[in-house]
Design brief:
Layout lengths: L1 H9 L7 H19 L5 H12 L6 H9 L7 H13 L3 E4 L4 E4 L9 E6 L5 E4 L2 H13 L8 E6 L2 H4 L2
Parallel strand pairs: 3-5
Antiparallel strand pairs: 1-2, 3-4
Bound molecules: zinc ion (ZN) (2 copies).
């Protein structure tokens, strides 16, 4: 069924070549930063690289531990600042429900963050639904509320964990 395979493709398949996603993401990040005159410093690049090494979202301290595993001595604040830069430039999203970070799969396209998060394997699919954004905006406007950001996090089970 084409519908199911479209859904499956949003979740990284077990055993898929995640390194390829990472190198693609880094090339995109470099191009975006270059076009904006933003500097993808060594640490910012390494933080992004580390986030993309893992198909599941990573917490700031996991990132720090991975960075420092090779003997570097990066401070937590430096990692948080690098994360802020990556978020501001739309390269990384922060997932509040997991307090963790995931690389954006729609870099360069304006979108708010909408995520389906598997509570069993922690894999995340990023969806970009204009309909969701519009519905939230309309509901907010009807209540005189002015949103400054919209992040939708939906918990559940991914197709792999459901065994579909
Ligand atoms: Zn995104
Ligand atoms: Zn799962």
């Amino acid at each position: 069924m084409p519908r199911t395979s479209a859904v499956l493709s949003d979740f990284p398949k077990h055993g898929h070549d995640h390194r390829a996603c990472g190198s693609h993401a880094l090339a995109e990040a470099e191009a975006i930063c270059h076009s904006r005159g933003a500097r993808l410093t060594d640490l910012r690049r390494k933080v992004l690289e580390t986030i993309w090494e893992d198909p599941a979202p990573l917490g700031a301290y996991d990132i720090l531990a991975k960075l420092n595993a090779s003997g570097e001595r990066n401070a937590p604040m430096a990692v948080y600042r690098a994360l802020d830069f990556l978020i501001e430039n739309g390269l990384v999203h922060r997932l509040s429900s997991l307090n963790a970070y995931i690389g954006c799969r729609h870099v360069g396209r304006s979108h708010s963050g909408q995520f389906l998060i598997c509570s069993q394997c922690n894999l995340v699919a990023e969806i970009t639904s204009d309909a969701v954004t519009k519905t939230v905006a309309r509901a907010a406007a009807a209540r005189g509320f002015k949103p400054s950001g919209e992040i939708v996090e939906v918990m559940g089970l991914c197709p792999h964990c459901r065994g579909t």
